[in-house]
Design a protein that fits this description.
Length: 419
């Protein structure tokens, strides 16, 4: 029998290959199913010393740090023991963030802006971290960290002006709506390209350390962006140079139409990606304000003591559409958000404050009303300047803040436009 015949027989007896395409646990019309999730009880995960080596604490990449239990009590070693006033400020900032989101989403439906993205269900992440870290530390956010600005008191009118791209837009029409930039508030200019925040944050942190400064950096990306090369390149630099940076992965379960398994979430946790780079990893209940605060505080202490970066996976759920261009009813169960086992971050902090006697229904109703009124007043002020297309920054601004010194080409272009 010749070699060609052997090859043919071998091919007939070989097993055909198959390509595996990950599928979510539920599609439209299905009942939400979260039985596949592995979650520790509140208070069950130990809190290591910040000097613990990444190897010694590698199990934390697979556990889930939780502080608030089902009754609203703060339990376990990660309890940051925040005073009631800090907790109230956090709850009010989350309420205000949600009220702002609701109004701007309606503004889009009314044709006042071209685009908007809500952070419903994820408010505890940006608010807690924005309150904890200093404005002088630099944040490299995505488009779902509006709570960072709101928690730090950034004017709502300025945020709306940017969304409407009107004549008072602080970025002068140079960015898409919701892509804010506020250096004085520790908020680096948002990029629409996925994953860019991570190498930018690592580079900024390396520069801070190189100069002998005392400022750290923090970044946020979604679960899908961990599949970008930027993420892995940044982790290499963060590990090798011990950059003083906190690298957040907001695992909110869904991209615009694909679930987190497409980015590798079924194979392992996103936090565990840090292990191969020799970085410490924490996996945290992102709907637990106290847990987010405690984990960020741990990572901050590590960074400020020259022990390097920490990767934090914040386990949460995107309750709203990905953006105003998205319809999640086309790819996931309609009531999946309501059945999310880790609940709603506002409800959980409200429950905790009530349990400890520092909140009640009357105060909550007042906070809701005041948030709506504050957002409405800002809306009236901003819309008086103009919504999309009603007013816009002067054309001359596109020639400004581009080059330190104008060359003849820019001068000629100005002359041609008449500005």
């Amino acid at each position: 029998m010749d070699a060609r015949m052997n090859d043919k027989l071998s091919q007939k007896n070989s097993r055909p290959l198959s390509l595996r395409v990950p599928e979510p646990s539920g599609r439209p019309g299905d009942a939400p199913d979260f039985t596949h999730l592995s979650m520790d009880p509140a208070g069950a995960v130990e809190r290591p010393d910040v000097a613990t080596t990444p190897y010694e604490m590698r199990d934390h990449a697979f556990r889930l740090i939780r502080v608030l239990d089902d009754e609203g009590q703060a339990v376990g070693p990660w309890n940051p023991r925040l005073d009631p006033e800090t907790l109230r400020r956090g709850l009010k900032a989350m309420i205000l963030t949600r009220a702002f989101d609701d109004r701007m989403h309606r503004a889009h439906r009314q044709g006042k802006t071209s685009f908007y993205m809500k952070c419903t269900g994820e408010e505890a992440i940006a608010v807690a971290q924005g309150m904890l870290l200093s404005r002088e530390d630099m944040g490299f956010p995505t488009y779902r960290q509006q709570g960072l600005l709101i928690a730090r008191g950034y004017p709502l009118v300025e945020m709306m002006n940017q969304i409407y791209s009107n004549a008072a837009d602080p970025i002068k029409g140079r960015q898409l709506p919701i892509m804010y930039s506020a250096k004085d508030y520790g908020f680096f200019t948002i990029s629409g390209n996925l994953g860019t925040q991570v190498p930018q944050a690592v580079g900024w942190a390396m520069a801070s350390a190189y100069k002998g400064d005392d400022k750290i950096a923090i970044s946020w990306i979604g679960d899908g962006a961990t599949a970008e090369g930027d993420f892995h390149n940044a982790l290499t630099f963060a590990s090798v140079y011990r950059a003083p940076v906190i690298l957040n992965i907001v695992n909110n379960q869904w991209a615009i139409s694909s679930f987190q398994g497409i980015a590798g979430g079924l194979e392992t946790t996103f936090a565990s990606k840090a292990i191969g780079y020799g970085l410490p990893a924490l996996r945290v209940d992102g709907n637990d304000f106290l847990a987010v605060w405690a984990a960020t505080q741990w990572a901050e202490e590590r960074a400020r003591s020259n022990q390097g970066a920490t990767v934090i996976e914040l386990f949460t759920y995107r309750g709203a559409p990905h953006s105003t261009s998205d319809d999640p009813s086309r790819y996931r169960p309609g009531d999946e958000h309501e059945k999310w086992p880790l609940g709603d971050p506002l409800d959980r902090l409200r429950q905790h404050l009530t349990v400890i006697g520092e909140w009640d229904d009357e105060r909550h109703a007042t906070a809701l009303r005041e948030a709506v009124e504050q957002v409405r007043a800002a809306g009236k002020e901003s819309e008086a300047i103009g919504t999309l297309g009603q007013s816009r920054p002067s054309v001359k601004t596109m020639f400004e803040e581009v080059y330190a010194t104008e060359d003849w080409r820019l001068i000629e272009q100005r002359r041609e436009v008449g500005v």
